[in-house]
Amino acid sequence: MLIGCFVENNEKNKYLEGSFLQAKECNADCFMFYLGAPQTSIRKPIEQLNVEKFKILMEKDNFNFDKVFVHAPYILNLATNEEEIQKFIIDFLIKECKRVSQIGCKYLIVHPGNAVKNMDVNQAILNCANIINSVIEKNNDVCICIETMSGKGSEIGRNFSQISQIIKLVKQKDKIGVCLDTCHIWDSGYDLSNPEFIIEEFEKEIGIFFLKLIHFNDSKNVCGSFKDRHENIGYGKIGFSILIDFAFHPKFSNICKVLETPIYDNLIFTYKNEILNIKNNSFNDWRK
């Protein structure tokens, strides 16, 4: 079981050094962060992020860089038809990939975007793939991982078939991957109580080879609600036992699982308790 959590990137102004220290306090085997606020594309110069201190801590602890993931801002709409916005996103993601590489990491998670203004879904998928191809052409080090989405509104990536269509249009298959979000796929209609079916569908449509990360979240919603509201593990509609059976499945043994669940009291308290429950395969009501 490789279980970890989302961590902040500017805790006590320590930036990436603080990110690593937070992950260690949570007893995380892996972790993920944004390189700036998730709702903006504004980024601080790489020199201000304490990269060298981060690398020293990682190497001192023998923490594998393959177990650290960077998430791109969720405001980027890779499905857009607007040429100027496409150019902006490509330029931003090329620079973000460079930053990811500079800090020693290999994976950048992206949301595929929305088919806005009555856009044809196939066109939205093509737009997303074209942007990814343009970014990969300028990036030799980072794997871009498309996240599975809940299907709210006009989101693309709401099922494995749409993710598969994007991947098929990407030229360099070794630079593309998938981040599977358990809350998202549950909300989009995949019943996690049958993990064998989920795995079979994923294998058939996409291929386990492309699965690089699991966002491990419970959901506030019933299956097929097409919403996107994460819940702490065991407190939502998916439930502790279903999620544990899913996480401990042999097919996922080498896949990192990162929590993005709501924060109660503080980040360390929340994720330390959740990780402990998951590793012990025993639900302790730590929120009471």
How would you briefly describe this protein structure?
By secondary structure, the chain is α/β, with parallel strands linked by helices. It is built from nine helices and ten strands.
Structural description of this entry:
This protein is 37% helix and 14% strand. The chain is α/β, with parallel strands linked by helices.
Task: Summarize the topology.
Blueprint: E1 3-6, H1 16-25, E2 31-34, H2 51-60, E3 68-71, H3 83-102, E4 107-110, H4 121-137, E5 143-147, H5 160-169, E6 176-181, H6 182-187, H7 195-205, E7 211-216, E8 218-219, E9 230-231, H8 240-247, E10 256-259, H9 267-280
Parallel strand pairs: 1-2, 1-10, 2-3, 3-4, 4-5, 5-6, 6-7, 7-10
Antiparallel strand pairs: 8-9
Helix pairs in contact: 1-2, 3-4, 4-5
Q: Determine the strand fraction and express it as a percent band.
A: 5-15%
The string of secondary-structure elements, in order, is: EHEHEHEHEHEHHEEEHEH
Largest sheet composition:
8 strands, parallel, barrel
The largest beta-sheet arranges its strands as 1-2-3-4-5-6-7-10
Low-confidence stretches: none
Q: Structural class from helices and strands?
A: alpha/beta
Quick one: overall form?
A: globular
| Average residue pLDDT | 95
* Number of helices, counting only DSSP H or I runs of 4 residues or more: 9
